Amino acid sequence: MLRILICTAVMLFVAVVLALLPTPLDDPQMYIYSQPPKAEGTLQINHKLQRTRRLFENESFAPESFAADKKGNLYTGMGDGRIMRISSEGQLQFITRTGRHHSKCGRESMEPVCGRPNSIRVDSDGNLFVADAYKGLLKILLPEGIVHVIIPAEKGIDGIPFKYLNGLEISQSGLVYFTESSTKFERRDQLYDILELNNFGRLMVYDPKSRISRVLVKGLFFPNGIAFNMEESYILITELSLCRITKYYLQTSKQGQTEVFTENLPGFPDSIRRNARGNYYVGFSSVRLDGFNTFYLLMDYLGPFPSLRTLLTKILPKSWFDVFSSNHALVVELDRKGAIVSSFHDPTAKVIESVSDAFEYNNFLYIGSMEANFIGSLDLAKVL
């Protein structure tokens, strides 16, 4: 009897302690994911990404996005705040930084100081627009590399400061569209936004002529990359935490409306880029495939249990969740109806661990990754 009382008391004590422990999650939501896609058909496992060349290895750090100008130069932003150019002659050149230089730039704790350029694009004048996770919407004048803060993070839009800018695209008319993945969590705490499964994301637009910015869509689930269709009648938005892509109409009778473009993707989508065929390349930060490795289906298992997700954030350090990230890099090609028509895999992360951007240029696929110390280059003629 005494043993039962002691066990009961201990269990009550543990329950009280767990209840009192702090958690970054305020109101986690329940979500039931569909059965993950099978690795068959156009998703059949292959090793195409293992043919990727590693460019500028150890000179690069977490290149997340790419853009090209009319002179044949490529541009990318590094995870330590650097903005770099790959010249038409193939040289890696420093342009500027989005934040301050510090000897510890590259560490997650230093991102608010050093900057974290997530998306980069070239405008019609040959200058750069950058969505920096911490600094806001930036414009970089070339060739000088002068950084202009267009909308500082502390100002934001509609009285809501930016917490985490992410995707960016520029229309033919010069409008700058960009996403905010979360109005609550910073990039370095993005895990908690995914675990909370709340819709804190926004799609916004900035007009350089009028200098007016406005919110187009609220209530998105970790919006990340964006891409126009060829006619620019709509824009596609990856919603990472729900493994889906949403369409927002810019024109036609559906202007201002949203609808699901495709869902139940084989992973958590990061970027989306239109390719030369008018289709879309989507890179994934983590992969979910039925029957491939169930260990990496953490969110599929935890989606219906918000209380369990809250408990895990109380007892596990944030870094421990990395063990559930799939060691499988994946890029899929979607057609204009959202169907997967081809895929590129590195199923053992031999060359690439994950994909933050897959940008087609001159029949090469330039691949960025949050974990990489190189820029990936894949000759599409050898894999298509």
UniProtKB/TrEMBL annotation:
One MF term from GO for this chain? Answer: hydrolase activity
Q: Report the leader peptide range.
A: 1-19
For this UniProt record, the keywords arranged alphabetically read as follows: Glycoprotein, Phosphoprotein, Signal
GO cellular component term, pick one: endomembrane system
Query: Which segments constitute the Strictosidine synthase conserved region domain?
Result: 166-251
Taxonomy, top ranks, is: Eukaryota, Metazoa, Ecdysozoa, Arthropoda, Myriapoda
Task: Note the InterPro entries from the entry.
Answer: 6-blade_b-propeller_TolB-like, Strictosidine_synth_cons-reg
Alphabetical list of Pfam families matching this protein = SSL_N (PF20067), Str_synth (PF03088)
This chain's source organism reads Strigamia maritima
Recorded protein name is: Strictosidine synthase conserved region domain-containing protein
Its family remark reads:
Belongs to the strictosidine synthase family.
Locate the transmembrane regions by residue number: none
